[in-house]
Design brief:
The chain is mainly alpha-helical. It is built from 13 helices and no strands.
Amino acid sequence: MSPSDDLRALTERFDVFAGLAQRNGAPPQWRRPATFATLVRFVLEQQVSLASAAAAYARLESQIGAPRPERFLELNDEELRAAGFSRQKARYTREIAVRMLDGSLDLERVIATGDAGRRELLSVTGIGPWTVACFELFVARRPDVWPTGDRALYVSMARNLRLLQVPDKAEGDGIAAAWSPYRSTAAKMLWHDYLGGTSYTIDPRTGFVDNSGMVSS
């Protein structure tokens, strides 16, 4: 099924998504390329705002240009700290760079092999379920992915379902289970509303790609 088919199915079955579609229209089809740079962005985005991550990524680009594994590994701790990498995130990203260079992490293979690819990503230190879900949503573009633990999704869920409080991970994920097999579109609709709905515009600094497949600039 296409994203438009998934949108139609959600709006026909669930009042909350019918309301979101009426208010905001279809959500953006955010995409990212299968590159080292995309994994760098995902690491930087862990537990911080997109704006903070984008600023750190821009500082990294000012140091080395478009990030490539071999060039990233040339940076020392001080240079990475100046770009905005914590010690932990520097370690995570260095491991990703090493694994991509030695072939033990191949992003095209990850996309092609489904569950095995998911396990390949999870075997890398610093890549957990949230990062894997984002990769599957924005890079592999799988239709039934739910980024467990994403605070913005739970806040949007509480607002749109009129819950008394923001659900915790177990409750939120339990609610989202009813939206399978369309959870990717459900997540995009909730994120879109959280970001402002019709007033939201994609910030090219966040590294999503347009319909031509080119990185926004």
